[in-house]
Design brief:
The chain contains 13 helices and 15 strands. By secondary structure, the protein is of the alpha/beta class. The chain folds into 2 domains: 135 residues, Alpha-Beta Complex (Aspartate Aminotransferase, domain 1), CATH 3.90.1150; 227 residues, 3-Layer(aba) Sandwich (Aspartate Aminotransferase, domain 2), CATH 3.40.640.10. It is globular, with a radius of gyration of 21 Å. The structure holds pyridoxal-5'-phosphate (PLP). The site of pyridoxal-5'-phosphate has 13 residues, from α4.
């Protein structure tokens, strides 16, 4: 079936975090203006209707109309929840996973929190590569662990790489116990190469640092890019993989994530120390439907997202050439460097968030030390709205372009 991602859909008044939760955005300091006219393209949440097989599966749950405690086994269908997951990763990434290596978890940020609690003690160090998706930092801090930042190096064009000397130094610190890898990387859009992944794994193993690899964007791969899970290319020892349908199929509200632990010792530790979390009936139904029958929708979404990214990059080239953006390898995120405009971060913020009334996410959220002058935009929305957002922003910067 052909999906229409150009459809105009009003998401106001649906309890949407992206479209409705003004208090949330203001409290987090993301914006001071948020009203009916705001175009929110700050968050990784698609404004598209979901795949039909997901809708049908959820409808069956509603028709049954009983929402009791839910597990991941069905006597009549054997291991269908697990087989949907193992089948997907085999087909997509040629990655062999066994059902007994999979643990359901209610969201990827929760998976990060559980991993921090399972593999480290309060006061110990958790390594990250800034700029990085904000909850990496906030989860380390809220669990009373120490942030160990090994910053990525920007070559000036928006291409970010690992500083392996610094990485090794920080991993070698006896207090560092866990590395939270983000691949594909949010916000830079990098997909790390097999060689980079093997090097990270080798260093971490040598220093006894566990890797938890957040691969939530691993199915949102841009045209001509390839993504490999670290556990596939760098061995399974010392590695925990955090997978999810939340971004892939736009079902974040269903909290559909799965942790894969193929290292038996780490699996044992995780099971001993982490909370046991069960899914809800919608999540299980959506997971099975999406992984078994969602391919057609995802192919079309990825093609549309490539089109949005082409559109946005062309637009910036024509109308805002001083803003530097590298085409992402994965994700639907643009990490934009406004520093060549010569404007202060406060002025950039005022022009975008207040005058244009477009909501993005400011660089310091991702990197308090080096993020000033950067903005993050997420483009999974209808092209007409993206165009309007870009035109509103460009109109505020004509004097400096
Ligand atoms: C890298 C990364 N991890 C985790 C999340 C959130 O995942 P979840 O909704 O599964 O908690 C996001 C959302 O943007 C993300 O970009």
């Amino acid at each position: 079936m052909k999906y229409d991602f150009d459809e105009v859909i009003d998401r106001h008044n649906t309890f949407s975090m992206k479209w409705d939760c003004r208090g949330f955005h203001v409290t987090l300091g993301l914006t001071e203006r948020f009203d009916e006219d705001t175009i929110p393209i700050h968050t990784a949440d698609m404004d598209f209707r979901c795949a039909k097989p997901i809708q049908d599966a959820l409808q069956k749950v509603v028709d049954h109309n009983i929402y009791g405690y839910t597990g991941t086994f069905l006597p009549g269908y054997g291991m269908c929840y697990y087989e949907a997951i193992t089948g997907w990763f085999k087909r997509h990434h040629d990655w062999d996973i066994k059902p007994e290596e999979i643990i359901y978890i209610n969201g990827t940020v929760e998976a990060i929190r559980q991993c921090i609690c399972a593999f480290t003690e309060p006061g110990e160090g958790v390594m990250i590569n800034r700029p990085i998706y904000t909850p990496f930092t906030s989860t380390i801090l809220s669990t009373k662990r120490k942030v160990v930042n090994s910053p990525l190096i920007n070559d000036g064009s928006g291409y970010y790489t690992v500083d392996f000397d610094d990485f090794e130094r920080k991993a070698a610190d006896a207090n560092t116990k866990l590395f939270l890898l983000c691949n594909p990387h949010n916000p830079t859009g990098r997909i790390f190469t097999d060689e980079e992944l093997r090097r990270m794994a080798e260093i971490c193993r040598r220093h006894g640092v566990v890797i938890a690899s957040d691969e939530i964007h691993g199915d949102l791969i841009r045209k001509e890019s390839v993504f490999h899970p670290i556990a596939k290319v760098a061995g399974t020892k010392g590695i925990v993989s955090l997978t999810s349908l939340n971004k892939t199929f736009n079902i974040a509200g269903l909290q559909a994530s799965n942790i894969v632990i193929q290292d038996p010792e780490l699996f044992r530790i995780y099971r001993e120390r982490a909370s046991h979390i069960t899914p809800n009936p919608f999540t299980v139904a959506a997971t099975v439907a999406a992984y078994n029958e969602g391919q057609e929708w995802l192919d079309q979404v990825n093609e549309y997202l490539d089109g949005n990214i082409d559109f946005a990059l062309d637009f910036f080239k024509k109308h805002m050439p001083k803003v530097k953006i590298r085409r992402p390898d994965g994700t639907y995120i643009l990490w934009m460097d406004f520093r060549d405009t010569g404007l202060s971060p406060e002025e950039i913020h005022k022009r975008i968030y207040v005058q244009a009334n477009v909501m993005l996410e400011g660089g310091p959220q991702f990197d308090p030390e080096r993020g000033a002058g950067f903005e993050r935009m997420c483009v999974p929305t209808r092209r007409s709205l993206l165009k309007e957002a870009l035109e509103r922003i460009a109109a505020q910067f004509t004097d400096v372009m």
